[in-house]
Structures are given as structure tokens and as C-alpha cells.
Amino acid sequence: MQETDASTIDWNDGRLLTLQAGTSARCAALTKGELYVALLYNTAQHDQNADVIVVWSNSYPPRTITLPGTTGDAGVPAMVFVSGDDTEFLTISLGATSTATVAALMVSVSMPANTNGISAGPLPADGQLHPFQKYTRYDAIPAAGWSQLSLTSPKTQFVSIQMKMAAAAVRVLNVNSVGLYDGQLNKVGPTAQTKGVVTVQKIAKQSWSTNTVQGNGQTVVWMAADSAPNAADAQIALQGLSVLQALFVTGARGLRAMARPLGLSRLFKGPGNSI
Length: 275
What we know:
This protein has helices at residues 190-193, 228-231, 242-259, and strands at 8-10, 17-19, 24-27, 35-42, 50-55, 63-67, 78-83, 90-94, 102-107, 119-122, 130-131, 136-140, 145-152, 158-163, 168-173, 185-187, 198-203, 207-215, 220-224, 235-240. The protein is mostly beta strands. It folds into two domains: 8-240, no CATH class; 245-275, no CATH class. The chain has a six-stranded mixed sheet, with no helix packed on it. A five-stranded mixed sheet has the order 1-3-8-5-6, with no helix packed on it. β14 and β15 form a beta hairpin.
């Protein structure tokens, strides 16, 4: 493990931090089997591009990612995916002559360990829509069986990420004709670049749902990956389906079984309906 110099910030907790000219942030806590994404926001308010230098290996040269300039907190983040199977560290830097500032956040099923500055908490499987704004991270261990995940946003090109231990899905609602901008999605290291590890789903409508969230005891994370204006009205919902399906299939027998321990059996007695 390499020592860091005075200009390098210890980023092992993956927290939201601000990077300024001549400084670096180093996360040296990546673990095998886990996929991570670093979200990089250009937070300068003078419409200047930010060139972020990314290092993930001492055997491969650094990679420069350009974050377009913006004002009004309207910048969308660049996503940098990396796997702990390929490296133990990720370092991001701004050069000494940069005139920009960059907000950075590390996200995975275990990151950030320090959630100061973001909205983080469990996503209840209550079938209700919950705010999904900038810097919002939800997690859940879906119940055994099937669940429905829903996303909605009236804004064009709302981006969010679903992360599991070793895979991620980038979803773009109301996708435009261009899609993700050049440099918005980045994969470093062979694992993150492997087909099927990081996928992109382009959705040409405001609301989208899938009934194929399957509970297997593993944590799932959902992260809003967009600007404050574009994520202002975004919402997300999780709903368990297996209990509802069981009631539908078993019908009255299921209701009677549920009623017995509640002392309500007499409500279901009748001709041919004893229990």
C-alpha cells in the first residue's frame, strides 16, 4: 500500500468530498468481488470544463475524464466504474492549473461508509413513490420471490444507477436522441469492461417498471446520478409481489388460513366452506 502525500485526501470511506486544483483523493479500500462507481460532478460555477485524472493501476497510464462546464448546479456526473477484482485503489486528481472544483462520491453496496452530505437510507417495499433527487442513495434486501421496481421523472434524460455486488445497470429515463454524453460513462479495468457487468438501459418514456427484481438475500443499491434540476422531480418505488401473488392463487383458502390464528374462522364458515 502506497503512502499518500500532503495533497492527497484519504477517501477510504467513499464520502462526498470536494476536489480542488492541485489535490487528489485516493480510495484504497476496494475489495475483491465488489463493483464500485465514482460519481464526479463539475461544481465550478463559471462554465469551465474540469479534467479529472483517474488512476486505478500502476501498470496502466492515467486516464483523463473531461467534465463539461456548467452553471446553476446543472452538471451531470461522469460515472467511473471499477472492480475490486482488478485493483485495491482508485485515485482522482485535478491538475495544479485547473480552474474548476469537482464533487466526488464513491458508490457500491458498501459505499459510501460515511454518508455525510447525501441522503441515504433503506428503500421500503411499500409500493409508494419516494423522492429520488441528486445525492440520493437507497438500499434494500428485496424479499424472497419477486418485487416490482418503478422509476418516474418528467425531465428529459434522468439517469440513475442500480448496483449489486458485482454488477450495475445504468438507466436513462426519457432518453433523447443523443443518449449519454461522450465521457459520461467510463469503465476502467478489465472486469468493469466485461460484457454484462455494467449495462445501459435507455427508456423512452417518463415512467418505467420491472417485475423482475428477485430477492436472494443480497443488497441492492439505487443511486440518483443526475444534476439537481434534472433529478428534482424524480421518484422511485419498490413493491413486493410474491405475497400478493400467493393470495391471488390461493384465494379463499389463503384467506381462511390467515383468518384462523386471528380467531376469525367463523366469518368463512358456510355451506361447503368449513375450515
